[in-house]
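Changelog-adjacent note: as of this version, every example in the card shows the full chain rather than a window. The one below runs 353 residues end to end.
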Amino acid sequence: MTFVLFTFTNCNKTNKNLKTNQDSSAVINKLPYLTDQTNDFYDNSETYNLPLSPISVSGEISNPSSIDFSKLPLHTVIVKEAILDEKGNKFIGAYRYDGYSLYDILNLMKIKKANEKEFNPIIDLYVTIENNKGEKVIISWGEIYYPIHLHEIIIAKQVTRIVPSKTKKLWPLPKESKLIVGSDLVSERNINMPSKITVKSYHKSFLTRKGLNPLYSPKIDVFIDNKLVKTLTGVSDTFKKQEYSNTFYGRGRGLHSTTSFTGVMLKDILKPYTELSQKNIRTGTYLVVGKDGYRSVFTFSELMNRNDQSEILLICKPEVKDDGIFKLFPSCDFFSDRAIKGIMSIYFSNNEN
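Full-length structure tokens:
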């Protein structure tokens, strides 16, 4: 079963149908279905407040603090939520959530990386988000600040059902604030009442050699919890090749090229070694490392659990002796910073590295 998500953002949106969700079952019984009065499909039912809990931000930053929501704009995300069960994906409902984006929440935090002297780039950063129930999820820095579509990860403070016009099905209403990750297919990272955000860098150390020439690795070693499970020296023809047209643009140097990229989906290569589970979706991370020590964190979910078909490609060119033979193309990113070249290893863990 596949669920496709569409998102849009809208700052400081007001809704005349706003209600407080204190006793949602009583409200549901009295809720009239609102007829279409505009071309917007997502404002045709009541909007309910979701109580927020205080949220602190700490970790590898120089200015830990509690979030002042009053200074942040609202953004809107449209989701079709599903969770894992013994039969596969279990559909929960379709909703419009309004809330505060992780992008804005972390925007003024001053990064103070623990490994800054060894590796200054920010693409090995990630955040853990926890609630008072002991639930925790991991989101990579790249998911927050590099995607083509920004503000898709929010702390929701309002919810509106997306009601089918014919059946008028009223999906169960959430009663608490939620973390909403708009790009996820299975919504296991959408935990209730987040209360703590921690910024971290991946602690595994590598020799960093900026300007290494040639930047070449003849193989990729794949590790699961530091155990070698696969060595790639090429890509089998059994994997379907994808061609993505792209404007390849770096955060530092700007335009690199407008050429297409052809490769196979990295998730197809790695799928045999990691299962789709709640734990992996919530806290699984991959670290992709180049021969020069350049590396980036990707979460299990952004690699294996996307709903936008913006896949991460593995490009294999055995004939390339400089910047070869393996390279990443993260089609989900605006910038090219995570397009790692000369890949020598990939590490997976769901225990915070």
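Structural remarks: The mean pLDDT is 89.
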